[in-house]
Write a structure and sequence with these properties.
This protein is mainly alpha-helical. It has one domain: Growth Hormone, Chain: A, CATH 1.20.1250. The chain is built from ten helices and no strands. About 45% of the residues are buried.
């Protein structure tokens, strides 16, 4: 029986015969990016998430009720921008069929451009910024995360959604053998939760103690690494890419 530690390790460092090849660690990297950009957006852009759309639906309700610290415009823009990114991702999925490596490489390459643009905007407008600058940042980052979600959904590596952790956390306990379940795959699921936690922690530390712009720089570097890996490792359409 595989232990949670072994499951976690094989997610970070897959075996050569893993049917998903290098995709698990690449998706974990994208999960870290999710934690980073959500920390950046919530702490600097009118209490809005650019990846967690469940939160934005709730925040929109708060804002409409008149709760302080929440913005109808910001929450609505995040939801709309995320939808636009998801549409782009859906189109890529239709055009690029049967090659998960190429799909991930192209999608993350577009994300690199979007996050690079967001980094430039942050540098130009500064940490205080204007409403227009904040809205542009929300648009660029939420569109990037919508694209990521649509892509990861098609790549379809079990338990590695890169953004949605509610069901992942539920499954850790609901599928446990302790309650007669089939086994929770807690190692893989916990390492996914940990990846987002690490991203959020680093993002918050940078925003609070150093420079919020560094959050976007790190996100850019991680996305560029995933894109480069997708192009390089997916060359020649290996079995994991076409599975």
């Amino acid at each position: 029986m595989t232990t949670p530690f072994v499951e976690a390790w094989r997610t970070i460092v897959p075996r050569s015969d893993d049917p998903h090849g290098p995709l698990p660690p690449l998706l974990l990297t994208l999960t870290v990016v999710t934690g980073l950009v959500d920390a950046f957006s919530y702490l600097t852009l009118d209490h809005v998430f650019v990846a967690n759309m469940t939160g934005n639906v709730v925040f929109l309700g708060f804002a409409l009720a008149g709760a302080r610290g929440f913005s109808v415009a910001a929450s609505s823009l995040a939801l709309g921008s995320f939808a636009a990114g998801s549409l782009l991702g859906g189109r890529l999925v239709v055009v690029i069929t049967g090659d998960r490596g190429r799909l991930l490489a192209i999608a993350t390459s577009i994300q690199v451009v979007l996050v690079a643009a967001a980094t430039v905007v942050r540098i130009l407008v500064g940490s205080a910024g204007s409403s227009a600058g904040h809205y542009l940042l929300i648009f660029l980052l939420a569109a990037s995360m919508g694209l990521q979600n649509a892509t990861v959904r098609k790549v379809a590596v079990p338990d590695l959604t890169t953004t949605v952790l509610t069901l992942t956390t539920t499954a850790i306990f609901a599928d446990a053998r302790l309650v007669g379940g089939p086994g929770s795959k807690s190692g893989r699921r916990l390492v996914s939760v940990l990846a987002m936690f690490v991203g959020a922690l680093i993002g918050a530390l940078l925003v609070v103690h150093t420079s919020s712009g560094l959050v976007l720089v790190i996100a850019f570097v991680l996305l560029a690494a995933v894109a480069a890996s997708g192009w390089t490792l997916g060359r020649g359409r290996p079995a994991w890419s076409t599975a």
